[in-house]
Amino acid sequence: MQSLQSRAGDLKVEQLRLRQIINEKNTASILVGLFAKSPINVQSSAEDPEVENLLKRPVDEIPDASKVSELPALILPGQHASRNAKALQESTADETEDGIDYELLGKDRSQCSPEELDRIRRERNRMHAKRTRDRKRLFTEQMSEICRQLEDENDALLDYLTKIDPDHNFVSSIPRMEQSSPTLAAQQEPFETVDPCSLSDGEVPSNQLSKLLQAATAFEKPATSTAKRGRPAVKASSQSAPAKIPIPDILRSIASSLVALSDESSASDDSHDEEEHVNMLSGPGKRQRTSSKYYSVSSPAATAVGC
């Protein structure tokens, strides 16, 4: 509701700006035509009656939120004197289709039992809630219609301004209301796609293998029949086995090749890691054995010198 009000106010301000620009252009054209030596063709707004009426319309008559009509005041039976009985009957006759018991609401409270008073209170709450919804709906519908009317009028003024001054660039900062709702395709979320190049060598075969295995298990599921409601299920004989859909040979070959590929890649990775581990350990081991040899050779000399 607030957005519609602000939109109508912005459209009204835009129309006033367009009217001011057009009036200035017309005044300048008239002055140029008066003081020009040669006759100049001056395009008047009288050629377009709609534009002429928009330019002559008072500012107070431009539609806005204050022009929205409200719901008529509800007069319940028994609230006023009998002189308005005819008017009351006409007003209540129009409201008989909304599901509100106006006769119950028009009863005298002093002569009602506690149960009737409770019913009257609930019915009155229903009536006020319904009138609030109707008031909001009516305001929204009328404000939307006012916004569309202002948009059409501003477009007509803008077209006329373009005719009298093609070089004038008037840019509207107010977006137009969309008539159609967004399509289902625009509301759908995009699917997530994965680039196979971004995956490692071990992830691509495993993902494909898992998908193929899921497809194979889907083919191998037995075709079971469910019993309909109200009908007994047909029992399968002991000799007949549940029917299975055979797996296509191409799926079997692709799955076996992918399994072999994954096994070879894992085995090559393990052997490569083992060779690196042996190379890392071989260097320090040799140095350690060499140092121990030198120590064993030099030990007798050390003992001889000591002696």
Automatic annotation (TrEMBL):
Biased composition (Basic and acidic residues): 104-121
Transmembrane segments annotated in the record for this chain: none
Compositional bias of kind Acidic residues: 92-101
Ranges of compositional bias, category Polar residues: 291-301
GO MF annotation terms: DNA-binding transcription factor activity
BZIP domain: residues covered: 115-164
Region annotated Disordered, chain positions: 85-136, 221-241, 261-307
InterPro entries: bZIP, bZIP_sf
PROSITE patterns: BZIP
Biased composition annotated in UniProt, kind: Basic residues: 122-136
SUPFAM superfamilies per record: Leucine zipper domain (SSF57959)
Protein name: BZIP domain-containing protein
Source organism of this protein record: Fistulifera solaris
